[in-house]
Amino acid sequence: MSNTQQPLLTSFQLGDLQLKNRVVMSSLTRARATNPELAPTSLMATYYAQRASAGLIISESTWISPKAIGFINIPGIYTQTQVAGWKLVTNAVHKNGGKIFLQLVHSGAASHPEHLDGEIPRGPSPINLQLQVYTEDGPQDAVTPLAFTKAEIRETIADFKTAAENAKSAGFDGIELHAQIFTLIPQFLSSAANQRTDEYGGSIENRARLLFEILDALKQVWKSERIGVKFTPAAFNPGILKPDEQTIATYQYIFNRLNDYHLAYVHLVGPAVDLYGTTIAALQENYFGQFRKIYKGTLLSNLGFSRETGNRIIADGTADLVSFGCPYIANPDLVYRFAHDFPLAEADTNTFYGGYERGYIDYPAIIPVQ
Fold first, then answer.
1. How far, CA to CA in Å, does 65 sit from each of 124, 158, 166, 167, 191?
2. Total structural domains in the chain?
3. DSSP 3-state assignment of 227?
4. What's 147's domain CATH number?
């Protein structure tokens, strides 16, 4: 397939942003914010700048507040020191001709007192997620959280809004709301983790309320066409957060409502396992196509795509953009390699989460990154 024949390499109008191609660098936790302030560093600026040939970069997950923390060495966006660090990143990406969104996240009950100065994490209900949390002392069992009060829910929504304001100050082109895997929003969506009896629990509409209230707050800061949201409906997490009999109906409801939000995109992650025999077996065939029929806006798909499968899902109209995660670790020039059908370098899994330059900024490009 020649360069001009590749749908991945065609430009795309994302709201009022012109993307030079449809290759998106997915959010990748790399745990390089190894400083007490959890601030981005010049090392991180180099890393993102090396990958600026992507049509769009989505940053690693970023804590919206000290109460959101649930892992070590992940940066935040709640202090001016952190904002200054992120400015290094956005300036470097923009200097290299790229565009970058910041991904906002809260751990909810998927945290540990070690991350919260001894405080018990908050969750939708006082139900243990039965997973492990990575701390400075290594993996530890999650504790049973305290249930969010309504006042704490309002504070958390306000924290998302403040983080969005800080992202704008830091020079980002937009933001992505992390609503995936085992973090805060999926906890509220889960009937296993959320057994509240107020307006945030019970029905699908109530369990999805927090998602839409956060989006409404973000829209007060950013134009909706500069906001994305990421989901993993088929995430079979450790512990109790797994798809159930209401999962398909829940995401059908969410995707229908999102048609009124006119977002930059919905970022949809596909299943990593065979869905036959599960509660969401109906999604096995044409997973992305089923959501595509519901959601009328821009769909960004993620499922371990290759050059060939990424081009195919755009060509058949099932997705508008494709995000790549692991390939971007060892291939800062991924777009160039796709354009010329060059082989991809293999990443060192030992350096995925933590460390310094090695396995982070030392993967060579086939040609120097401009």
1. 18, 10, 11, 13, 26
2. 1
3. strand
4. 3.20.20.70
